[in-house]
Specification:
Elements (H helix, E strand, L loop, with lengths): L1 H7 L3 H4 L3 E4 L8 H8 L1 H4 L3 E5 L18 E5 L10 H10 L3 E2 L9 H9 L2 E4 L6 H10 L3 E7 L6 H8 L4 E2 L6 E5 L12 E4 L2 E7 L1 E5 L29 E3 L13 E4 L12 E6 L16 E2 L2 E2 L4 E5 L3
Parallel strand pairs: 1-2, 1-5, 5-6, 12-13
Antiparallel strand pairs: 2-3, 3-4, 6-11, 7-11, 8-10, 9-10, 13-17, 14-17, 15-16
């Protein structure tokens, strides 16, 4: 919940009067639904729709073996305009859950009809279907704020949206995010496990927020202080571009193409830089200049985005 709260409060004015869809969330156990339910009047929401997948019973760690799923449409009309945390537990205990005809797959026509009703989609989608999930949001022109793996930045389908300024990174990125896991879940690295109030959590790094909701951070410029020297910024063997291994070391006086880490997106301002390509994509550059792999002295570098400073 703390991860959700840290990010979502930045968009509270954009939530006002909107229909929120959490279409990968069992409303009986999801912290996304819980957040919007307990903040319904404070955010001035119009409606919350929450849908689970192949689960008829309230189990966070369901094996998704049921052929149907439940969903919830909440409009706040059944209670006063002051919701407290205890109201959520009462709501879960006493609510009569609606059952879908199908299994709750976000690709089903039944769930697409719910998607059409939404103004903003906020959820933690299945990472294995991330490309397909985001493509659906783009197809139906939906606003969204979702969690994903940082590696998705260089997926061909995702990178195109980033390059076209149809998708960008949220605010609370980097570090680790904690995910609740079953009590029997085990991992050798004990520092990645914690238990709070009898609940076990697993930490996963490289998790970022993907969104097309505007925010203040996206308009902040990176402060550049270093100057270009050929020795400090070597050129790639196969590209007419220089290697910049740290975002904070982007030179202030270089107007050519630069290869930077994917963490650059956390500070990306489209009025300060333009994104040209990636060394992990295929056919991302219409001129065929930036494709797969970038090399320095015969050795391949890590994932890089190719950027160029916009001249004022």
């Amino acid at each position: 919940m703390s991860d959700i709260e840290r990010e979502l409060w930045h968009y509270k004015e954009q939530f006002r009067g909107k229909v929120i869809l959490c279409n990968c969330d069992d409303p009986r156990v999801s912290n996304f639904f819980r957040y919007f339910f307990t903040s319904f009047y404070r955010l001035g929401l119009k409606k919350i729709i929450s849908v689970c997948y192949k689960n008829l019973n309230p189990d966070l760690f369901s094996q998704n073996k049921d052929e149907q799923a439940v969903y919830c449409v909440y409009d706040g009309k059944d209670r006063a305009d002051d919701i407290i945390e205890g109201d959520y537990e009462e709501f879960v205990r006493n609510n009569e859950w609606q059952t879908l005809k199908g299994d709750g797959d976000f690709r089903s026509q039944e769930c697409i009809e719910l998607l059409k009703q939404a103004d903003i989609v906020v959820t933690n989608p299945p990472f294995s279907l991330f490309r397909e999930y985001v493509s659906q949001l783009d197809e139906y022109k939906k606003k969204f704020l979702i969690i994903g793996d940082q590696n998705a930045i260089t997926y061909k389908e995702i990178f195109k949206l980033i390059k076209d300024n149809k998708l960008w990174i949220g605010i609370d990125n980097g570090g680790t995010k904690w995910f609740q896991v079953p009590s029997h879940y085990n991992i050798q690295t004990q520092t990645r496990i914690k238990i709070e109030n009898g609940v076990k959590y697993f930490s996963k790094g490289s998790i970022v927020w993907f969104t097309n909701l505007d925010h203040v951070k996206r308009h902040e410029e990176i402060t550049l202080y270093k100057r270009y020297t050929p020795k400090e910024y070597p050129k790639y063997d196969n590209y007419d571009a220089i290697e910049v291994s740290k975002v904070v070391e982007i030179p202030m006086d270089y107007d050519g193409v630069m290869g930077v880490p994917v963490t650059f997106l956390d500070k990306y301002n489209p009025k300060q830089f333009e994104i040209l390509g990636s060394n992990r994509g295929i056919d991302q550059d219409p001129n065929g200049v930036y494709g797969r792999g970038s090399f320095l002295n015969g050795k391949e570098t890590f994932k890089r985005l190719f950027i160029r400073r916009i001249k004022k």
